Amino acid sequence: MNWLSADDAYITLRYAQHWAQGYGPVYNIGERVEGYTNFLWVLTLTPLIGLGVPGTLAVKLLAGLSGAGAICLVWFLGRRIAGRDSWLGPAAALALALNGTFIWWTLPGSMEVSTLALTLLAGFYLLLGREGADERARLRETLGAGVLLGLSVLTRPDAVLFGIPALVVVLLEKKRRPLRAALLLAPGLFMVAGQLIFRLAYYGDWLPNTFYAKVGINLRVIGRGLEYLLTFVKAQALLFVGAVFFPWKRWGAKALPFLTGCLLYWVYLAAIGGDWMSLRLFHHTVPILVLVGVGGYLSLFERLRGTNWGKAVRIPAAVLGLAGLVYLTHLEADPSMAFSPLRFGVQQRYSTARWLNGHADPEDRVALTSTGIIPYFTDLYTIDMVGLMDPHIAREGVSIAGYGFPGHERFDNDYVLAKKPEWFVLNITPGELKSGAQPTLFYEMDLLRRPEFWAEYPLVLPPYPTLTILHRRDDARGLERLESGEWESSYGFVPPYARRGATPAGI
């Protein structure tokens, strides 16, 4: 089941594995570059791997347990919002357990967003407070909420946006507001300060390298972000419709702060241009949306039940409710996401890694853009062509913000070629390449349209499906490890657009 994991999950695993092996939290051994934004996830996986738990299993266990915990917390949150006798808790928990977007990034995706959902929901639960709790208990709950929200920020820095409405909730308390605000903020500030000190001491920078590689805001980026947001709205349309009927006067005071955090986060996602992985960054907001949407439908049903024709609508309402749950259980993260091609693409990366393990020298260097599965399973020195793990490209590379994949919009192919890697791996199959198809990624197209690149790197043709692999022609030792047919049959091959100097449409 390894193929189910998203490619980016293996970037974190590579950092954690190297740390567990004693090399420190590094992507390439000996190079201190912070190419991740999920410090708590790395910190949690490292001891598990050190104890002998396989990395992929550790990720799936951690993500699965976090997802299960989030579902349970939605049940408890529903009780705190609507009362113990309300159906909101169990109904929302069921809806979340069947929600395709949530389940996809909990189990197949296995990303840190499942842990982020858990810590945020737990923090919200404590922030609401137990009904009838005394003053000391409320102070303890506020401190606990601060710890959990601090852990959320260590999981993903942008979770700090959820702290804004949380602070407003505390400041609206009637008693001991300064103390409660301090208890809420102090744990998170302490954790973030500790991470900053560690980052500065170990990596030599105040910000992660990913910040320099990813940040670039313009109208094209914002437009793409709005499309990303619209995709989420369409995928969760039933829940947004339900939110219209939510009983704001009755339950709004408890639910509104958390929904406000979601709204702030959605605006932020639109501003940064969204994400290239389908709805991944919405994952931890889905539980709150589920609570509000399901709460709206329950309120609507209660209103209809009190009318003269309430009995007549019970069965149709139940049928529509079941149909809605079935709709939300679509296997993909959103209805436009194709499961089979995704599985095939990930499997190609595994096949590519397997082939490289049998043919590459351990001292070889590979340049690529998919920096997860292949580097993790080969452990080759990796040149990240889009700069997430390369400070030069992140800071000085050419920016194509708004034209590429979100977060992968810087490159410097002259710099990469100057490093003379033994291998290149590109996100197009050899068959597609030989048929004249163009890569969808601009930086790969920029590379392939150079005749001098083909003069130096002939195409390799493994006997089973892989991504495009190219090997440096003057690496005599490497050529000795190849079967003659794996490279000689492609000798002299140059795609038509390399001679024309073409560029992808729209660039």
TrEMBL record:
Membrane topology term: Multi-pass membrane protein
Pfam families attached to this UniProt entry: PMT_2
A GO MF term: pentosyltransferase activity
Protein's cellular compartments: Cell membrane
Superkingdom to which the source organism belongs: Bacteria
GO CC annotation: plasma membrane
Keyword Flavoprotein: no
Keywords for the protein's UniProt record, in alphabetical order: Cell membrane, Glycosyltransferase, Membrane, Transferase, Transmembrane, Transmembrane helix
Main location: membrane
Glycosyltransferase RgtA/B/C/D-like domain boundaries: 40-188
One Gene Ontology biological process: lipopolysaccharide biosynthetic process
TM regions (residue ranges): 57-78, 87-107, 113-130, 181-202, 228-248, 255-274, 280-300, 312-331
InterPro entries in the record: LipidA_mod_glycosyltrf_83 (IPR050297), RgtA/B/C-like (IPR038731)
Protein name in the entry: Glycosyltransferase RgtA/B/C/D-like domain-containing protein
Organism of this sequence: Candidatus Coatesbacteria bacterium RBG_13_66_14
Taxonomic lineage of the native organism: Bacteria, Candidatus Coatesiibacteriota
